[in-house]
């Protein structure tokens, strides 16, 4: 009051009081944390930096769509955290190249190659397959899992079918076609491999045999990830390169009192860890403790023999270090020659790179127990903390047309097979249209939905680019906004807010894509209304919407390249700027066709008009080009052009037919 009086006394006006607006609460990112089984506010430990470890593949066979489920999903999450939320993400992933599955597969492949190299006689092959069938039949009879039993029964039927011609030929002393036993060898390779391994596996001692297989499949894995547009990890760790670190990791766990040595192997004492203050075993799936089937799968096929199981203080304990048996690779250690346990690999490698605590650990849903629970226990035993991982993210299962997918059940689709049917963008869109943490069904319906979504968005981008090609001067691009533009712009901002809310809600890309679809539908309605009124749509507004949508697809990893609007044109290896290169030729063709149509209408040559329609309706769409006729002229929108040569051929064909028609008419 005194200030106002003082100023007023001097005869000067003053600014009125100012107060900031109330504002609105901005949504914050929440992630579904498997450690709490709920959505938690995401708070990195060190400012904007995010330390992230992801369990990588065990490389003993071709990568399949189950792998794609995890790695595409995590690639989407990673890109969104980096490019949308602007976190500084440091991403570490491992390659498991020492594992029971790898050892067994490498031995079997080696022994089967040796067997074939010996060129056994038909009678010898028959005898060996029949011998190999005996333990297989026992295994089939003892199998209770319905899916696995069905797989084994299919294998048994295939082998029996392949045996019949060979048995008949030998009994009848007929000349044998080499194809007969070649087919049998192919159908029975799994049986023979198992039998050969049981007989001679212990004699395989050359370590290089166990490294060639994972090296090859790791290379194939990286090719698949590149084809899927999955970003490479910032750091890639291989188990074979970290054996010394793993040995030191195990030693410290022993020193801290959470492990014990037994017959050259080292085991983690789950009971002692669980009883220790500040520690808890099986944080992720406590109800699974004691599940012997899951525990034995975690230990590996080569590590669940009766003598191995008897070495443990408790059946819940798990191997940190395994004493190598004959036929297994080995490394020196304080406990004798051996190899790492499965779970310890991730702990030692992640600990070496990321330290005592990370922000995010990712992996497939089926890894929660025992793998990730054992990782947590041994890592927290090593670091003597209770927060080795702050947020545990698990991607959902992938089914194939509603059926369980499993490599061990031979019910899987390789990534290469999937890419032969659909593009990487279509696969990614299918994943984006589903929650990353829920089961995704890879089926014709799923892929058709993704394809239709892609077409819907592509059509919008093409229409916007066609509108932007309308000639105008530099000032003409800034048009007056009427009520329709104001309404569309209001909707644009509402949809951007809705997309942001969806991404903050556990990175809900499914809802985000639906909001983007709704924005396009509203934009299409606006364009249609303007054209119906014979008015041009507002270029700048549509350009802003198209830029936003394009940027979002780039954020999701569904668009590569630098094109400002829409999906890149052209196949892999072609220039991303193919559209701008081809457009002048399309314009020439369009102008030529329009001239021909004009003459044909004037001279009433219906045959030529029909040929023009064929070019528009049949020839150009096959090349990925849409040509629209309008009363006031023409409009060209272009999708994926295959070869410029075909455009020239189409133009030449039209011109020749026009000349021929005129000649016939004269």
Automatic annotation (TrEMBL):
One GO term of the biological process aspect: cysteinyl-tRNA aminoacylation
Catalytic activity, reaction form: tRNA(Cys) + L-cysteine + ATP = L-cysteinyl-tRNA(Cys) + AMP + diphosphate
UniProt GO molecular function: ATP binding; cysteine-tRNA ligase activity; metal ion binding
Keywords per UniProt: Aminoacyl-tRNA synthetase, ATP-binding, Ligase, Metal-binding, Nucleotide-binding, Protein biosynthesis, Zinc
Record's keyword annotation contains ATP-binding: yes
A Gene Ontology cellular-component term: cytoplasm
InterPro entries listed in its UniProt record: Cys-tRNA-ligase (IPR015803), Cys-tRNA/MSH_ligase (IPR024909), Rossmann-like_a/b/a_fold (IPR014729), tRNA-synt_1_cat_dom (IPR032678), tRNAsynth_Ia_anticodon-bd (IPR009080)
Ranges for domain tRNA synthetases class I catalytic: 42-450
Cofactor dependency: Zn(2+)
EC category name: ligase
EC id: 6.1.1.16
Function: Catalyzes the ATP-dependent ligation of cysteine to tRNA(Cys).
PANTHER family to which the protein is assigned, alphabetical: CYSTEINE--TRNA LIGASE, CYTOPLASMIC, CYSTEINYL-TRNA SYNTHETASE
HAMAP family: Cys_tRNA_synth
Protein name, as recorded: Cysteine--tRNA ligase, cytoplasmic
């Amino acid at each position: 009051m005194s200030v106002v009086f003082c100023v007023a006394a001097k005869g000067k006006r003053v600014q009125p009081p100012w107060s900031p607006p109330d504002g609105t609460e901005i949504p914050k990112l929440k992630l579904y944390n498997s450690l709490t089984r709920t959505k938690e506010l995401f708070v990195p430990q060190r400012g904007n930096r995010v330390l992230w470890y992801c369990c990588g593949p065990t490389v003993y066979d071709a990568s399949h769509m189950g792998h794609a489920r995890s790695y595409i999903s995590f690639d989407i999450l990673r890109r969104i955290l980096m490019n949308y939320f602007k976190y500084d993400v440091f991403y570490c992933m491992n390659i498991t190249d020492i594992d029971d599955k790898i050892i067994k597969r490498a031995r079997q492949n080696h022994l089967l190659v040796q067997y074939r190299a010996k060129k056994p006689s038909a009678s010898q092959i028959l005898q060996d397959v029949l011998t190999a069938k005996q333990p297989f039949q026992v295994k089939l009879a003892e199998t209770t899992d319905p899916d696995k039993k069905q797989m084994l029964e299919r294998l048994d039927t295939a082998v029996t079918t392949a045996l019949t011609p060979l048995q008949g030929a030998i009994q009848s002393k007929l000349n044998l076609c080499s194809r007969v036993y070649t087919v049998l060898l192919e159908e029975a390779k799994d049986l023979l491999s198992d039998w050969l391994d049981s007989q001679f596996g212990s004699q395989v001692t050359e370590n290089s045999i166990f490294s060639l297989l994972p090296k090859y499949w790791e290379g194939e894995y990286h090719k698949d990830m590149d084809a899927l547009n999955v970003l490479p990890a910032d750091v890639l760790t291989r188990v074979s390169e970290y054996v010394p670190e793993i040995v030191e990791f195990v030693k410290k766990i022993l020193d801290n009192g959470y492990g014990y040595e037994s017959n050259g192997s080292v085991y983690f004492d789950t009971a002692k860890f669980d009883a220790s203050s500040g520690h808890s075993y099986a944080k992720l799936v406590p109800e699974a403790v004691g599940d012997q089937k899951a525990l034995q799968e975690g230990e590996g096929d080569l590590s669940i023999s009766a003598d191995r199981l008897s070495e443990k203080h408790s059946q819940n304990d798990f191997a940190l270090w395994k004493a190598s048996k004959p036929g297994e690779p080995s490394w020196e250690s304080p406990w004798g020659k051996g190899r790492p346990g499965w779970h310890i690999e991730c702990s030692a490698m992640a600990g070496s790179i990321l330290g005592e605590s990370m922000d995010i650990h990712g992996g497939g849903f089926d890894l929660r127990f025992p793998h990730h629970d054992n990782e947590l226990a041994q890592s927290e035993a090593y670091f003597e903390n209770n927060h080795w991982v702050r947020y545990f993210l698990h991607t959902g299962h992938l089914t194939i047309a509603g059926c369980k997918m499993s490599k061990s059940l031979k019910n899987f689709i390789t990534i290469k097979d999937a890419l032969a049917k659909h593009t990487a963008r279509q696969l990614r869109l299918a994943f984006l249209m589903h929650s990353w943490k829920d089961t995704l069904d890879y089926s014709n319906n799923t892929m058709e939905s993704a394809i239709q979504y892609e077409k819907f968005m592509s059509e919008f981008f093409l229409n916007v680019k066609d509108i932007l090609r309308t000639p105008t001067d530099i000032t003409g691009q800034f048009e007056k906004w009427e009520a329709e533009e104001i309404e569309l712009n209001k909707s644009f901002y509402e949809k951007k807010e809705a997309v942001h809310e969806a991404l903050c809600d556990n990175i809900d890309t499914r809802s985000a894509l639906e909001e983007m679809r709704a924005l396009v539908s509203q934009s299409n309605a606006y364009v249609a209304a303007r054209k119906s009124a014979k008015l041009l749509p507002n270029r700048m507004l549509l350009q802003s919407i198209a830029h936003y949508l394009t940027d979002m697809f780039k954020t999701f990893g569904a668009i590569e390249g630098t094109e400002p609007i829409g999906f890149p044109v052209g196949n892999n290896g072609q220039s991303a700027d193919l559209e701008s290169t081809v457009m002048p030729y399309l314009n020439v063709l369009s102008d030529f066709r329009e001239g021909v149509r004009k003459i044909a209408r004037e001279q009433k040559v219906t045959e030529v008009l029909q040929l023009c329609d064929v070019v528009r309706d049949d020839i150009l769409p096959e090349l990925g080009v849409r040509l629209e006729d309008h009363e006031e002229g023409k409009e060209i929108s272009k999708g994926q052009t295959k070869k410029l040569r075909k455009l020239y051929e189409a133009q030449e064909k039209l011109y020749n037919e026009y000349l021929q028609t005129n000649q016939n008419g004269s």
